[in-house]
Structure formats: C-alpha cells, structure tokens
Amino acid sequence: MKESSDISPSDNSHRQRMQRKKEVVDAGIARASEDRGVIVLHTGNGKGKSSAAFGMVARALGHELKVAVIQFSKASNSTGEELFFRRQPGLAYHVMGEGFTWETQDRERDCRAAAAAWQQAGIYLTDPAYDLVLLDELNIVLKHKYLSLEAVMETLQQRPAMQHVIITGRAARPELIALADTVTDMHEVKHAYKAGVRAQKGIEL
Fold it and tell me: Between 20 and 30 A from 137 (CA), which of 25, 63, 125, 156?
C-alpha cells in the first residue's frame, strides 16, 4: 500500500472524483426511501429485451420470490429460457402465443390468443402472492391492438401494491411508457442475423 507521500497527482485526483461521486450516490440512495411494486419496461429494436427480463426473473427466484411468466407472442416451440425456468420452483410459466404475427397472418386467431394470455395474466396481476409478473412481448400485442390498452393499463394500476411487473417488446405505446417506473430503450448497433448468421441456441433460442 502506498504511503501518503507516494500518492501521485493522478491518484489524488481520482480519489477526489470518486469521493464526490460517492457523495452524490449516497445522497440519491438516501432519497429513495419508498418501497412499492414497480413496472419495468424493456422496448426498442435492439436484441436483449426478453433476455434482460429473464435475468430479473432469475434474480427474483434467487431471493425466493414467487414469479409468473406469460409469453404473448412466443409459439409453443421451446426456447432455452423456457426449458430452464420451467424446472425452477416458485415459477408459473405460460407460453400463450401463436407465433410471430408475420407467421400466423391471421388477426382473429392472434386476437384470441392475446385475449387468452391476458386472461391468464390477470389471474397473477390480482394475486398478492406473486411478487413478480413478466409479460413477455406484451408491447407487440398492444401495438397491433389485439388487446385494449385502456384495460391493460387499468389492471396494471390496480395490481397488488408490492407486485413488480416487467413488460417487453418493441414499439411500446407512449401511454405505457408514461405509466412505467423504469424504461429501457434498447438500440441495435449491429446484429449477426443481418450478416447471414441464423439464430443460435443459447443466444437467440
């Protein structure tokens, strides 16, 4: 360990900057004294919206919280996260979609699937026993108006006070962005798919 006389100007400057940063961070933590459920929204064209959400699911399960997952537009073919998380205790997992909208090409069918998924989601969004509810790809369903935005927002606002909700999908509605507590817009810089690399297990699947 360096003696005080051996500290270089750059070391001293760094220490001072970090001290100022610590004071700002500590003050922010002190101000954040409220405990309540939050809505976390992941949107944007970049990869990783659902992946980030499932990272939060893993975090919640690590704390032995009770979690429900409803996937709105994923089809019944198993993804890596489904194969893994279905084995975890404390987790209810529902794949309720009919597949991507450009594959189904059937609005009425997609509307029925969205309504069934939302009915299932409603069971958890009114149950205080569930600490975290993931509504995967709900944004896509709302973008295509398969569900009533007003009904979705009303249910979200009336959920149990300590329940957290994560919503994913591109093209989040402005009203939902305004309602959410934490919003991340993921931007694509580049993607292997555009270079001709197909979806890979453990990365996209």
Answer: 63
